[in-house]
Every structure is written in structure tokens, then in C-alpha cells.
Amino acid sequence: MNAGFTVAGEHILWTDLVGNIASLTVVWLAMRKTVWTWPVQLAGALLLLAASLDAQVPGNALKQVLFCALACYGWYSWTRGTRDQHDLLVRPATARERLFLLAAMAVGTVVVAELFIHLTWLHIAWSPWVNAYIFVGSAVASFAQSRALVDFWIIWMLVDLAGVPLALKSGLYVSGAVYGVFFVLVVLGFNRWRREYRDRRFAAPITAVPVNADR
């Protein structure tokens, strides 16, 4: 897992590099609402899991395990939302959904931070609260993405603001650089999904199957 190359005296892991390329590809695919978003995210999560284990960052490793599960759920959800060749409908979260997402982030961050603090085998050496925030925020963003909620882009922006210093502190230099590019792509994705939803609201009614149509 520690195979890689050296740049400016720093060891760059191939798993970290390729995994982050996959993560950037996921953003590009999500902007276009293709179901391929999820298998690519699954592959990227597996690679970053290997990189995190090599860098001895168990909190980030656990996040990648969670990403694998969420990728499978999102794959199923988007596949159902685009069945019969219908386009995937994106929409803003309702007030109730936003309250749920915010509550999940707040409560989840507290719970996970306490676990990071008290479970010594996790070895969270730098700011367990930041690690917990990124862990929970990433999970909430992926869940909102699986529901085709425009708000998931905003959650990713908030997560990215903490992701750069954490990645650099952990020695995952490629991840730190990618977080910056990731942020730019997330902003573009948010504007694209928001514009699409706005245009659909003022356009003639279309026949489509939303992700949660039968729930």
C-alpha cells in the first residue's frame, strides 16, 4: 500500500494520488448527474482507504469505509431515479430535510469526536473535533447527494474548508492540494444544479421520476 514516488522530498502514495483523481472525477460526473458517479466514488474510496491505512489515519480510513456503503446506496438510489430513461430530478431540500441534515451534522460531530477522544486505538493526534466534523459532514453530504438534493454541494463546501489543513497535517499532500481543486468544482456543480432546478421550475412540466418518488 505504500508504493509511490518522491516529490520535493515528500513521499506521494499512488493510492492517494489515484484515489483523489477518482474523487475529482466523481464531482465532474455528479455535475452531469450520471449514475457512473457512484461506482467511481466506490473505487476512489477503496483507494483512499488504503492510503489512509498506510498513513495511519484511522479516522479518515473509517470515513472511506462509510463512503463505500454510501456509494452503494447512492448507486441504487440514482439508478431507480433514472429508470425508464428518465432524467434525474434535482431539487433543494425542504425545511424539514435541512433541519435533519444540520442536526445530523451537529449531533454526529459531537458523538464521533467523543469516540475519537476516548478510543485510543483510533490515534487521532490532531484535532479530533475537526476529524469528526469532516467525517460526519462527508457522510451527510454523500447522503444528500444520493437523494439528489442541491444542498449537498453546500455541505461539501463547508467540509472542504476544514479538509485542506487536516490533509496537510496528516502528510497526505496530494489530498490537501486536491481539496482546493475540489472546492472550485463543488462551487461549479452547485451553480449548475441550482440553475437546472430553477430552469425546470419555469419550464413546461416534464415527465420524470425523482429519486424518492416511491417513498
TrEMBL record:
It is found in: Cell membrane. Pfam families: NMN_transporter. Its main location: membrane. One of its GO terms (cellular component) is plasma membrane. It is a multi-pass membrane protein. The keyword Transmembrane helix applies. GO terms for molecular function: nicotinamide riboside transmembrane transporter activity. The chain crosses the membrane at residues 12-31, 61-78, 99-117, 123-141, 148-166, 172-191. Keywords: Cell membrane, Membrane, Transmembrane, Transmembrane helix, Transport. It comes from the Bacteria. NCBIfam families: NMN_trans_PnuC. Belongs to the nicotinamide ribonucleoside (NR) uptake permease (TC 4.B.1) family. This is Nicotinamide riboside transporter PnuC. It comes from Nocardia pulmonis.
